[in-house]
Amino acid sequence: MINQINGLHHITSLTIDAADNNKLFTRVLGLRRVKKTVNFDQPNVYHLYYGDKGGSPGTVMTYFPFPNIKKGIRGTGEVAETVFSVPIGSLAFWADRLKANDLEKIRLEDSFGEKRLRFVTGDGEGFALAEIENDTRVGWTENSVSKAYAIRGIHAASMRLQDNGAMIELLNFMGYQQVENRGNLTRFVVQSGSAANILDIESLPNVKLSCEGAGSVHHIAFSVKNRATQLEVRKALVDTGYAVTPVIDRDYFWSIYFRTVEGILFEIATNEPGFEQDEDIADLGQTLKLPAQHEHRRSYLEQVLESIDL
């Protein structure tokens, strides 16, 4: 069994419009844009990062905006919903704010004893805000959302699966323990992990497979402390039979990737070096940062990439 994983590092999704995505996460949800860079493989496409003040692991959503992408089709074999942690008593504020900004399918529910406000973005991506009592993380409060309401980071993510047997085996191997079952939902927790340490599995044997597009989660990333622990995790996964990529330098963390039996792309990302290596913390996310291999194309990329405000 692996014991080096702390919980979630980040979640990366696909979107149609960079400016709309930036507005949603900064002006509506109140997160900080901590990095404006590009897709390593398609540098004419942004890679946008949103999180807390410094982009701490477990607080970050990232996006690839593809202007001509079709909307994804929801189903099984995908990460279905990302749940953010908010303070107790804040959901009424968020319900009004989400309605005022035309978010869809806003509904108040209870899940595993947590009050949740669920909603869907214009891309069709599912989110929820959950009132969590003992989350000590400090949310970003400089985008018109006060401390009493500010999102503190990712609390949980859920996956929809036709058959959850292989996923349960994998999560147990990765250090997640099953703690509760309610109907077709099963909750897993890394007991000694971070505040972003929960995964919920929804079993839907008769639901068709999803089709990736705008509103789909591209991959879900798990956090490890450093490169040494990442290599330990990689060896353990390879020894178990998973086809794992070599370590890839993503500038702000090192990554390895593998696909689950259900086809979901998992990433294991290091907590080092972080987003401050090429920008002061006061200036995070303000200027376009390019991977070294694309720096020679800066003039061209600055012309073709859509202009987006903070």
Helix content: 10-25%
Helical region count? Answer: 5
Biggest beta sheet summary: 8 strands, mixed
Q: How far from one another are the termini?
A: 43 Å
State Rg.
18 Å
What is the averaged pLDDT score? Answer: 97
Structure description:
The chain has 310 residues and is α+β, with helices and mostly antiparallel strands. 16% of the residues lie in helices and 35% in strands. The protein is built from five helices and 16 strands. The chain has helices spanning 18-28, 91-100, 165-173, 227-240, 298-304; strands at 7-15, 32-38, 46-51, 60-65, 78-86, 104-111, 114-120, 126-131, 153-161, 177-182, 185-189, 198-203, 217-224, 248-249, 253-259, 265-273. An eight-stranded mixed beta sheet has the order 2-3-4-1-13-16-15-14. The longest helix has 14 residues, at 227-240. The chain is globular.
SSE layout:
Elements (H helix, E strand, L loop, with lengths): L6 E9 L2 H11 L3 E7 L7 E6 L8 E6 L12 E9 L4 H10 L3 E8 L2 E7 L5 E6 L21 E9 L3 H9 L3 E6 L2 E5 L8 E6 L13 E8 L2 H14 L7 E2 L3 E7 L5 E9 L24 H7 L6
Parallel strand pairs: 1-4, 5-8, 9-12, 13-16
Antiparallel strand pairs: 1-13, 2-3, 3-4, 5-9, 6-7, 7-8, 10-11, 11-12, 14-15, 15-16
